[in-house]
């Protein structure tokens, strides 16, 4: 597939917006990466007839300009303050949009994530993260009349929930509707305490682990193989049945995947291994964060165990290590970063993130819901993604990358 791009353009807010520095909380600081997603729209949808990619681009551009008036920090750029932390310079220069054209039909692309990467604009000339636009959008037309919207959004600005709120606001504006959920922009709700107070939590998410198994070398000699493993409701029930006692589906599947991945990598029994996973803390803060909170409301929580103990114990042991977070833990984590500026260590780590509750497939800009939507970037070697499966979202797809030797073993362990 060949994709030809036009020159990128800037889309500024439609009217004047504040130019004061925009505060980013400590939960935003460690996430200076772009999250890329894709939305595919078929030209055969009844409401898409007569809508081509040029029309879609113009409609999206006009609506983006209007919605950026409310989401004005996305029209700025990252900067580093005197305290060494990131904030946003609200320059009003705008988001980036690109028109593109592919030399094939949309159905020929499939859902291969590697190929989909060509459908999201990459600011390749950026010298550092401070030069990367906070929001990029690429509209690509296909020979069949279908088109895609590829988005890249800075994780410093948005977690999954906030991203879906923004995209829904953009889609409502495109359809000429008022916003059902305006953004709540004040991130100072999550400022650290003065002085910082670390409340009896070890915060092992930041702990350095000795790499006694030379886990880096495990990935050095073989390229990562990426696979998606489907768990329908029946298979999820079988996973939960292996755990004696009550647990959630997430806890059961997280423990199952962590244990299986550790087995597959064949690390030494004395190697300490870490499970990091992102928890949506919005409803767990006291008081809860307001609806429409624009920012990161996710907190990393952590479990650490020796590999031999993890793999040699029943599944229930691994599941029991998967701990949820409280307001005290989250406030302590915010203060821990303020006091130490530590960043999570990924040696011997599985980083689990779940997109299974994000409604990527219901976004309607006026020409129907997407025929396919999902992430574009493949997981790094430490990352596992949980994605929703099926129209009713009752199943979960587990997406990860492993060296070939480990992937073969992991595939066997997934057969239950």
Automatic annotation (TrEMBL):
The keyword Transferase applies. Signal peptide: none annotated. InterPro entries: CAT-like_dom_sf (IPR023213), Plant_Fungal_Acyltransferase (IPR050317). One of its GO terms (molecular function) is acyltransferase activity, transferring groups other than amino-acyl groups. The keyword Nucleus does not apply. Keywords: Acyltransferase, Transferase. Belongs to the plant acyltransferase family. This is Omega-hydroxypalmitate O-feruloyl transferase. Coiled coil: none annotated. It comes from the Eukaryota. It comes from Acorus gramineus (Dwarf sweet flag).
């Amino acid at each position: 597939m060949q994709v030809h791009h036009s020159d990128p353009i800037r889309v500024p807010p439609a009217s004047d917006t504040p130019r004061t520095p925009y505060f980013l909380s400590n939960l935003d600081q460690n996430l200076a990466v772009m999250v890329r997603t894709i939305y595919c729209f078929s030209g055969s949808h009844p409401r898409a007839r007569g809508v081509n990619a040029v029309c879609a681009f113009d409609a999206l551009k006009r609506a983006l300009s209007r919605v950026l008036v409310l989401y004005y920090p996305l029209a700025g750029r990252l900067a580093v303050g005197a305290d060494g932390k990131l904030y946003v310079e609200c320059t009003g220069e705008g988001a980036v949009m690109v028109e593109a054209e592919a030399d094939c039909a949309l159905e020929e692309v499939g859902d291969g994530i590697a190929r989909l990467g060509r459908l999201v604009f990459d600011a390749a000339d950026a010298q550092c993260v401070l030069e990367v636009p906070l929001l990029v959008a690429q509209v690509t037309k296909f020979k069949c009349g279908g088109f895609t919207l590829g988005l890249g959004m800075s994780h410093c600005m948005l977690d999954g929930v906030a991203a879906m709120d923004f995209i829904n606001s953009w889609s409502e504006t495109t359809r000429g509707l008022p916003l059902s959920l305006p953004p709540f922009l004040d991130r100072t709700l999550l400022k650290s305490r003065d002085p910082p107070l670390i409340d009896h939590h070890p915060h092992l998410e930041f702990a350095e682990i000795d790499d006694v198994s030379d886990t880096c070398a495990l990935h050095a000699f073989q390229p990562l193989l990426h696979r998606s493993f489907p768990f329908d409701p029946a298979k999820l029930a079988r996973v939960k049945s292996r755990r004696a006692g009550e647990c959630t589906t997430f806890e059961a599947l997280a423990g199952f995947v962590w244990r299986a991945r550790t087995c597959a990598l064949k690390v030494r029994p004395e190697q300490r291994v870490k499970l990091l996973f992102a928890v949506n803390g919005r409803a767990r803060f006291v008081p809860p964060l307001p609806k429409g909170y624009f920012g990161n409301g996710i907190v990393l929580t952590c479990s650490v165990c020796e590999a031999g103990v993890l793999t040699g114990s029943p599944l229930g042991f691994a599941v029991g290590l998967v701990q949820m977070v409280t307001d005290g833990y989250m406030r302590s984590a915010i203060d821990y970063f303020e006091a130490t500026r530590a960043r999570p260590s990924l040696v011997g780590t599985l980083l689990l993130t779940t997109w299974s509750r994000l409604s990527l497939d219901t976004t309607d800009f006026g020409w129907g819901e997407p025929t396919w939507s999902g992430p574009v970037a493949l997981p790094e070697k430490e990352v596992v993604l949980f994605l929703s499966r099926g129209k009713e979202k009752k199943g979960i797809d587990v997406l990860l990358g492993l060296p070939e030797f480990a992937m073969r073993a992991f595939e066997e362990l997934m057969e239950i």
